[in-house]
Design a protein that fits this description.
8-stranded mixed sheet; two-stranded antiparallel sheet; alpha/beta; 51% helix; 15 helices; 349 residues
Length: 349
């Protein structure tokens, strides 16, 4: 891989004109970075071009002059210096396969997608390497951040993780502004684990609050949920310290406690008595935790790691379990020491 300097990232093409893609594009452009954005909905792109606003996902925020709307994906990919992907995890591999023939050699690619590749349990970095090869520097952007607040210029901190230190530094510098601080990390795996599993746990927290089980139950779910994240990260070889950073603990707290979270919204609707299908319609937008739940559980089972909260979320979402019964199942588990584990034990229970 070649060194990547900040100037080499201009212009950046953001693929995905939803809330998060638009917010990141605004953040880059607001910093004076020449930035392009493309989305699959041509009608939406035309409205964005005419109104200079993403009225569907980020209403009330004007797009900076340095943000250009692109209608031709092939042309944009062929001429950009950096691609930032912000699409749902179930579209990630399809998109990368689509743009691969157009992506010039050595052009770096980053993503703000949180999840796993469907039906494989593969982390997105592994999927990106499989599809694109090793010629392109890769990075993941994660951390406690709601799109609307980033777009509005409210204070936010993010993590940029890459095994290419120059790319991580350049991308963090491009994102860094008056209200957005970006940190770098070499722990790509750990950042992905934190950003993926917290979405599943936010569904659990939403269910608990929808059932009106109170603040005590929510705090227990967050704490034991972090224990599940840490167990999985340790066994898979991530740095445990990453789990206590922005992309771990920070993102977990944000997503589990604030109603802006789509994952929490889904859980709240289920806890208040809606069916899963009704709850999905109520949220009305992509809920990454629902896509990730089965994949996370599959990876955990393959690694021999117990994740009882994730397991119960899967039972509620996909097996028709009563949420109250799932909570009761968690409470009735055998008592044990809070930090009990045996040295070298893969389960770290």
């Amino acid at each position: 891989m070649t060194d990547v300097m900040e100037a080499d990232l201009m212009p950046t093409l953001v693929i995905g004109a939803g809330a998060w893609g638009t917010a990141l594009a605004i953040a880059l452009a607001r910093n004076g970075q020449p930035t392009w954005i493309w989305g699959r909905d041509a009608a939406q792109l035309q409205i964005m071009h005419e109104t200079r606003c993403n009225t569907t996902y980020i209403p009330g925020i004007n797009l900076p002059d340095t943000l250009e709307i692109k209608s031709d994906l092939q042309e944009a990919v062929s001429n950009c210096k950096h691609v930032l992907v912000s699409v749902p995890s179930n579209s990630f591999s399809t998109l990368l396969t689509q743009i691969k023939p157009w992506l010039p050699a050595g052009v770096p690619l980053s993503w703000a997608t949180k999840g796993l590749t469907p039906n494989t349990g593969a982390f997105l970095v592994d999927t990106a390497k499989r599809i694109l090869g090793l010629d392109h520097p890769l990075a993941v952007i994660s951390g406690p951040s709601f799109a609307a607040e980033v777009a509005a210029g409210l204070p936010t901190a993010l993590t940029v993780a890459s095994d290419n230190a120059d790319f991580a530094k350049s991308l963090a510098s491009a994102l860094h502004g008056n209200s957005l601080r970006a940190y770098t990390s070499p722990d790509v795996l750990g950042v992905q684990i934190g950003g993926t599993v917290k979405n599943v746990l936010a569904i659990a927290a939403g269910i608990s609050d929808g059932l009106q089980y109170g603040a005590n139950a929510r705090a227990a779910l967050l704490t034991r949920g972090m224990a599940e994240i840490l167990r999985l990260a340790t066994v898979l070889g991530a740095d445990p310290q990453t789990m206590f950073g922005l992309s771990g603990m920070g993102d977990l707290i944000l997503t589990c406690t604030d109603d802006q979270s789509r994952n929490r919204q889904l859980g709240l609707a289920i806890g208040r008595g809606q069916t899963v299908e009704e709850a999905v319609k109520t949220v009305g937008k992509t809920v990454e935790g629902m896509h990730a739940a089965r994949e996370v559980l599959m990876r955990a089972q393959q690694a021999g790691v117990e994740m009882p909260i994730v397991e119960q979320v899967c039972k509620v979402l996909f097996e028709g379990y009563d949420p109250r019964q799932s909570v009761q199942t968690l409470l009735c588990r055998e008592p044990k020491a809070e930090n009990s584990h045996r040295q070298g034990d893969k389960q770290l229970n």
